[in-house]
Design brief:
Blueprint lengths: L2 H31 L14 H11 L3 H4 L20
Length: 85
Protein backbone atom coordinates (compact mmCIF):
# COMPACT_ATOMS: atom_id res chain seq x y z
CA UNK A 1 0.00 0.00 0.00
CA UNK A 2 1.11 3.51 -0.70
CA UNK A 3 1.47 6.20 1.94
CA UNK A 4 -1.76 7.88 0.80
CA UNK A 5 -3.71 4.67 1.44
CA UNK A 6 -2.20 4.34 4.93
CA UNK A 7 -3.16 7.93 5.65
CA UNK A 8 -6.75 7.37 4.50
CA UNK A 9 -6.98 4.18 6.59
CA UNK A 10 -5.69 5.99 9.69
CA UNK A 11 -8.12 8.83 9.02
CA UNK A 12 -10.97 6.35 8.71
CA UNK A 13 -10.18 4.97 12.17
CA UNK A 14 -9.13 8.16 13.97
CA UNK A 15 -12.01 10.48 12.99
CA UNK A 16 -14.84 8.27 14.34
CA UNK A 17 -12.76 7.62 17.47
CA UNK A 18 -12.37 11.35 18.11
CA UNK A 19 -16.11 11.90 17.56
CA UNK A 20 -16.93 9.08 20.00
CA UNK A 21 -14.63 10.57 22.66
CA UNK A 22 -16.16 14.04 22.26
CA UNK A 23 -19.73 12.70 22.51
CA UNK A 24 -18.85 10.60 25.58
CA UNK A 25 -17.25 13.53 27.39
CA UNK A 26 -20.20 15.77 26.51
CA UNK A 27 -22.72 13.24 27.88
CA UNK A 28 -20.73 12.86 31.11
CA UNK A 29 -20.78 16.63 31.52
CA UNK A 30 -24.56 16.68 30.99
CA UNK A 31 -25.04 14.11 33.74
CA UNK A 32 -23.10 16.35 36.12
CA UNK A 33 -25.45 19.26 35.36
CA UNK A 34 -28.66 17.21 35.81
CA UNK A 35 -30.46 17.99 39.09
CA UNK A 36 -30.33 15.30 41.73
CA UNK A 37 -33.50 13.34 42.52
CA UNK A 38 -35.05 14.40 45.79
CA UNK A 39 -36.47 11.93 48.27
CA UNK A 40 -40.27 11.90 48.35
CA UNK A 41 -41.74 13.85 51.29
CA UNK A 42 -42.71 11.86 54.34
CA UNK A 43 -46.47 11.59 54.95
CA UNK A 44 -47.84 13.77 57.75
CA UNK A 45 -49.35 11.81 60.63
CA UNK A 46 -52.72 13.00 61.83
CA UNK A 47 -55.22 11.96 64.47
CA UNK A 48 -55.23 8.30 65.43
CA UNK A 49 -52.11 7.54 63.37
CA UNK A 50 -50.06 10.01 65.45
CA UNK A 51 -51.53 8.67 68.70
CA UNK A 52 -50.84 5.10 67.57
CA UNK A 53 -47.22 5.79 66.67
CA UNK A 54 -46.69 7.76 69.90
CA UNK A 55 -48.24 4.92 71.85
CA UNK A 56 -46.15 2.30 70.08
CA UNK A 57 -43.03 4.32 70.85
CA UNK A 58 -44.07 4.26 74.50
CA UNK A 59 -44.73 0.51 74.36
CA UNK A 60 -48.54 0.76 74.56
CA UNK A 61 -50.88 -0.69 71.94
CA UNK A 62 -52.79 1.71 69.68
CA UNK A 63 -56.16 0.44 70.94
CA UNK A 64 -55.46 1.28 74.57
CA UNK A 65 -54.05 4.70 73.66
CA UNK A 66 -56.93 5.56 71.30
CA UNK A 67 -58.83 8.70 72.34
CA UNK A 68 -62.10 7.27 70.94
CA UNK A 69 -63.94 4.94 73.38
CA UNK A 70 -65.64 1.86 71.89
CA UNK A 71 -69.40 1.95 71.35
CA UNK A 72 -71.43 0.88 74.38
CA UNK A 73 -73.63 -1.66 72.56
CA UNK A 74 -70.77 -3.17 70.55
CA UNK A 75 -68.97 -6.34 71.60
CA UNK A 76 -65.95 -5.86 69.34
CA UNK A 77 -64.83 -2.38 68.30
CA UNK A 78 -61.84 -1.33 66.27
CA UNK A 79 -59.38 1.37 67.32
CA UNK A 80 -61.63 4.12 65.96
CA UNK A 81 -64.65 2.99 68.01
CA UNK A 82 -66.57 1.43 65.11
CA UNK A 83 -68.37 -1.87 65.63
CA UNK A 84 -67.06 -4.92 63.81
CA UNK A 85 -69.67 -7.49 62.83
Amino acid sequence: MQSREWFMLALLIVVPLIIAIIVTLWSIKQIAYRPKKQAPPKPVQTGVEAAGSAASAAGVSAQTASPVPPAADCETADSKGRCRH
